[in-house]
Amino acid sequence: MKVKQISIFLENKQGRLLEAVETLGAAGINIRALSIADTADFGILRLIVPEPDRAKQVLEKARFTVKETEVIAVLVSDRPGGLAAVLRAMSTAGINVEYIYAFVEKSAKHAVVVMRTENIAAGVKALAAASIPVLTAEQVYAL
Amino acid sequence: MARKKYLIWDRAAECMPAAKRRALQLRRLKATVAHAYARVPYYRQAFKAAKVRPEDIRTLDDIRRLPCIGKPELRAGYPFGMFAVPRREIVEIHTSSGTTGKPVVSGYTAGDIRLWGEAMARAMTMAGATPEDIVQNCYGYGLFTGGLGVHYGAHRIGAMLVPISAGNSKRQLTILQDFGSTIITGTPSYMLHLAELAAEAGIDLHKTKLKAGLFGAEMWTEHMRAEIEKRYPLQALNIYGLTEVIGPGVAQECPAKCGLHIAEDLFFPEVVSPETLEPLPDGAVGELVLTTLTREGMPMLRFRTRDLTSLERGTCACGRTLVRMSRITGRSDDMLKIRGVILFPSQIERALFEIKGLEPIYQIIVSRPAGGLDEVEVRVEASRGFFSDEVRHVEEFKRKVERHIEQAVGLRVKVALVEPKSLPRSEGKAVRVIDQRNL
Lengths: 143, 439
Fold this sequence. Notes:
Strand order of the largest sheet of chain A: 2-3-1-4-6-5
Number of helices of chain B: 12
Order of helices and strands of chain A: EHEEHEHEEHH
Number of strands of chain A: 6
Oligomer: heterodimer
Mean pLDDT of chain A: 89
Low-confidence stretches of chain A: none
Distance between the termini of chain A: 15 Å
């Protein structure tokens, strides 16, 4: 129920994001989802890709600082209040969400929400208790 | 056993009783002063301005009556104005890097080249070099003195020399493994760079035959030594020298690692206050001033090195009686004054070394916003050691580094994280400080 996410350190410098995605493109790695956390002097690029280990390798070879982290991905129906149900489940269980990002699935019926919690297992348990479908890694990479 | 551990090239000179050496130094000083005065117009004028004559040198302490000379005076004589012999007797030229203006030209007679080889043979023997050894010389060859200094020393000893010069790291690693080099020479930052590349290529440096390294040409710290000795199976020893005086070989650390033995029968050291030029007692940190005692082509009387160090006398565990200088802790012209606080880049470096997860590579940017106070930014590389995918963890780490530096140097600085391998690694001298203030 855990999905591997790769995070890349980006110095706030023109062209670095481009270099990172070009490196993945050249290796034939397709990006499924992405988000950027940015501060005044650096950014952290977070990616969901089908082959996280290989993506990490090619990026490190291109001298990026890369880290693999685990996240939870859930399917949410694409309608008002859909995300609220997910967050309510976490809040009820007293679980802090460190960060969250979402993308709309190709069929446009569902949205996929990617979440990072301090304790991934506890997060997955809280979602299961609220009957919210958690996606497996394979399901996410195949989206 | 103890004898075997400490090799000595010239026992008579290096272990000479102090009183006997002082007599020798005085004899040589008198001769050098007379030679410089007779042959170099600059010295004649400077002596006249200081109201001193060669015959006023009666004791070693009288050296203090002579005026000091610095880089600006040497530059004024560019290119050949400081030579004390006819140009046809000069057989080789070296120059300083010239990063701060016109380079200083150093001219060597055949005798000076022999002297240099002798000083380097002492230094390299001190580090353990014998005719059995293979010396991989990663100092740059050319006008820079590092490459040829080691070259002449290795020849004098009869060691097998690999004049690979600086750069081409892949070839360095191949040769290091295939030839089985036992001694390596270069800048300490290059050695760390090479170790990083070796790790990336999956090469275990501990399987190499390296036993000693002579590292210098830039300032480095005890922490850097520990790092190098962790990554290579060798004793990392400090070598010191300057183009203006001769090149490397002026001083060298022995495996007892308690300071660098100055070849003081050849190069006479003084430590003075950088502000007043008053002599400082042994043990006190000040600017090193050097006088050549046997150099023919370009005698140097009281050259201000700008390097900060202290002197210690007494017989070393290795048996040498030569005075020892401490590792260079800063340069009197590298000294930054920030919001009234004195800061040496080496202080920042030491502070960074104490933080786990940081590479010992950094750059300091000093700026003065319009109408504002000086700001110091310390750039360090975001290595895997501390990188987290959460902004708050990275920010926390940054603040931890900032607090640590503030505690160590008494100055608030801003830490900026930059991409790995983006800061300069040097093969000659690394630019560690960028001062953007218009002072």
